[in-house]
Specification:
The chain is mostly beta strands. Helix content is about 0%, strand content about 55%. The protein is built from no helices and eleven strands.
């Protein structure tokens, strides 16, 4: 099994930045892809960005050019740098490994 713990959420004004981090533990050698998903009230969980262990990345159209996903395989961490945040980015953000394991989530609120 893999355990994932997110951190870095909070309240930020529109146009601001936040950096989310996720630390993986357990059977980390089994991890191929890590990603960030988000879910806002009344909505389905949606993919935000993913990164493979060879650093291939994917971004949802809604965050391209604003968010950057990165990974430190030596530290078993994945980060999401979020810039130019918008109110519609408000959601609980979840870290995932291999789309099988999930963290508990961290709240991101973008509001003035």
């Amino acid at each position: 099994q893999v355990q994932l713990v997110e951190s870095g959420g909070g309240l930020v004004q529109p146009g601001g930045s936040l950096r989310l981090s996720c630390v993986a533990s357990g059977k980390v050698d089994s991890i191929y892809v890590m990603g960030w998903f988000r879910q806002s009230p009344g909505s389905h969980r949606e993919l935000v960005a993913t990164i493979t262990n060879s650093s291939s990345t994917y971004y949802a159209d809604s965050v391209k050019g604003r968010f950057t996903i990165s990974r430190d395989n030596a530290k078993n961490t994945v980060s999401l740098q979020m810039n130019r945040l918008k109110p519609e980015d408000t959601a609980v953000y979840y870290c995932s490994s291999n789309y099988d394991y999930w963290g508990r989530g961290t709240q991101v609120t973008v509001s003035s």
